[in-house]
Amino acid sequence: MATRATQTRIVDAAVELFNEHGTAAVSLNRIAEHCLISKGNLHYHFQSKQEIIRCIFQRALDEMDAGWYRDHLAPTLEHMAEMFVRQLQLIIRYRFFYRELANLLRADRVLRVRYATNRERRLKAIEQFSARCRRAA
After folding, report:
1. Per residue in 93-103, pLDDT tens?
2. Residues 67 and 89 sit within 8 Å (Cβ to Cβ)
3. Rounded CA gap, 2 and 9, in Å?
4. What are the pLDDT digits (tens) for 101-121?
5. Number of structural domains, the chain?
6. What CATH number is given to the structural domain containing 75?
7. DSSP per-residue codes, 26-66
8. Can you give the residue range of the structural domain that contains 41?
């Protein structure tokens, strides 16, 4: 249990610091200091800053998916507006990722592949949702 809580603290701290200062300006030491843990403890959970960024990306995807799979049940324009608002909230919550997207993807092939795969999956889902909206209208 403590392990999961520590991982969550690390990721939360990283999001906060990355949003405020950018990923290049934030070191693993700074994240550890912000969490009040040792660098060794941070390395026990995450081997690199890139691993933390990947974890943050997965968290954002999980949040997106949690809302999306409720959304497909109600293909209306009102529901589409709610989806849009939730997406904007995610962009604000993880603004460093969107701000630095090109550089983050350029620097990490694994993240680039995961991002592209998710993007394709999301575009197909949006097309299907739009088609259901048109049929429901």
Report:
1. 999 999 999 99
2. no
3. 10
4. 999 999 999 999 999 999 998
5. 1
6. 1.10.357.10
7. --HHHHHHHHT--HHHHHHH-SSHHHHHHHHHHHHHHHHHH
8. 2-136
